[in-house]
Amino acid sequence: MTKPAPLWQNIRDTLYSEIAQGAWRAGARLPTEAALAQRFDVNRHTVRRALQSLADEGLVQARRGAGVFVLPAPLRYPIGARTRFRQNLLSAGRSPSRRLLHLARQAASAPEAQALGIARGAPVHIMEAISMADDLPISLARSCFCATRFPDLDTALRATGSVTAALAQMGISDYLRKSTRLTAQTADPVQARHLQISSGDMLILSEAINVDISGLPIEFGRSYFVGSRVELVLESDGPAPFVT
């Protein structure tokens, strides 16, 4: 005889079906634990386990002091020869925004120097920012640029909030993705706080080098994407040929 599914599983299945059918749309707040416990005639612990199961699947997110909210479907984020944050989000029907965390000039570390083709200790601009889709954090990024080549880039970055727009002010009207390296890791407490997730949640680390049309490196970036919110799609177009 088949054992009946546990109560929390039945609650999870019911809420999952309601979300799938549109009863609870992206951004909507689910009823409180107390309300759900009353609806299903169970204790709050049982409700909490059902909600945690939905959160583990990337369907909902608990926000401290605010409640549990339905998350949008994972964002399809193409990575190809010309990867642009704003264009990717607008193409997906999402509203792009960035929140600047840190912008400073400092000495290049060994990995940064190697990626940019400059001497270790050479001056670089470092920008750290949170990238958001419809005001929901999807990635925590750190970008590095050669300050000798682009001495005023920090001013342009602060004014525009956009890497593409800032580089255009520096005379770089187009740039290409040379390489992308993807690895998986878990979020530490600082990353979790910035990304509004739990410590230990899965992240996708993208390490990328962008180059100008002649093939010279202009940006080395490390972006930590929230695994449950983004689908990284590697496109097969490959980098466009360099103009010599």
From TrEMBL:
<protein>
    <submittedName>
        <fullName>GntR family phosphonate transport system transcriptional regulator</fullName>
    </submittedName>
</protein>
<dbReference type="GO" id="GO:0003677">
    <property type="term" value="F:DNA binding"/>
</dbReference>
<dbReference type="InterPro" id="IPR011663">
    <property type="entry name" value="UTRA"/>
</dbReference>
<dbReference type="GO" id="GO:0045892">
    <property type="term" value="P:negative regulation of DNA-templated transcription"/>
</dbReference>
<dbReference type="InterPro" id="IPR012702">
    <property type="entry name" value="CP_lyase_PhnF"/>
</dbReference>
<dbReference type="Pfam" id="PF00392">
    <property type="entry name" value="GntR"/>
</dbReference>
<keyword id="KW-0805">Transcription regulation</keyword>
<dbReference type="InterPro" id="IPR036388">
    <property type="entry name" value="WH-like_DNA-bd_sf"/>
</dbReference>
<dbReference type="InterPro" id="IPR050679">
    <property type="entry name" value="Bact_HTH_transcr_reg"/>
</dbReference>
<dbReference type="GO" id="GO:0003700">
    <property type="term" value="F:DNA-binding transcription factor activity"/>
</dbReference>
<feature type="domain" description="HTH gntR-type">
    <location>
        <begin position="5"/>
        <end position="73"/>
    </location>
</feature>
<dbReference type="InterPro" id="IPR036390">
    <property type="entry name" value="WH_DNA-bd_sf"/>
</dbReference>
<dbReference type="InterPro" id="IPR028978">
    <property type="entry name" value="Chorismate_lyase_/UTRA_dom_sf"/>
</dbReference>
<keyword id="KW-0804">Transcription</keyword>
<keyword id="KW-0238">DNA-binding</keyword>
<dbReference type="InterPro" id="IPR000524">
    <property type="entry name" value="Tscrpt_reg_HTH_GntR"/>
</dbReference>
<dbReference type="Pfam" id="PF07702">
    <property type="entry name" value="UTRA"/>
</dbReference>
